[in-house]
Write a structure and sequence with these properties.
By secondary structure, the chain is of the alpha/beta class. It contains seven helices and eleven strands.
Amino acid sequence: MQTILFHSTIFGPIHSRRLGTSLGVNLSPRDGKVCSFDCLYCEAGFNAQGAGKAGLPPRAEVCSLLEEKLRSMSENGERLDVITFSGNGEPTMHPDFEGVVNDTLELRDRYFPEAKVSVLSNSTRLGDPGVCRALLRVDNNILKLDSALDGTIRLLDRPNSPAFTAEKVIGELRQFEGQAVIQTMMLRGEFDGKIIDNTVPEEVDALIEAYRRIKPREIMLYSLDRLTPATGLVKVPIEELRAIGKEIEEATGIPVQVN
């Protein structure tokens, strides 16, 4: 079974196809997964593997480990494009998320002032004022919207909360108008006897309407790049992704990045 990717709080730097040379911050346990989604395509595996025993890393520990790494990289003349909150689950679930982001911005300014700070979030915690304050401060506030249709979100992203709906998250995403980057995973396939395909016209039209309402500064379209815990998923060819991206950009006037 596919399991967690990262066994430390600070990892990398690694090369991100969307962000460049990235130093990762994992606010989930280093031996388990904690997430408010259970996505079929998650490279960290399904939530069923458990949260492990290490627990969430305390704010002070994250700060200390990050400073140690940034100091070492700076002294060695290494390059850094971005510090990215990602890892084995949803970073905004950390109880001190806002404080950790504030610490990270301070350390970034001290050691790598030209680097960006990015957060990859699944958009499930946008009702928390502290989370939203933190996301408004980072350079790249990258928020997930894989579909604007409830049935597809439930099938593809499998949110833990029954209160999570497309309409709810679209409404919450609107507070970041002009600041957020919306990231959408495009794929097709089958899971548990049900067909999945968010590239069909009905899905793309619904996404276009949602993007118009949200008004992000940019849209990121991407497809599968690594092994997935659900085995019946299929990567969308890059040529098809580019065609969908062109359609979305022409319909919304919002820049679309395709990876």
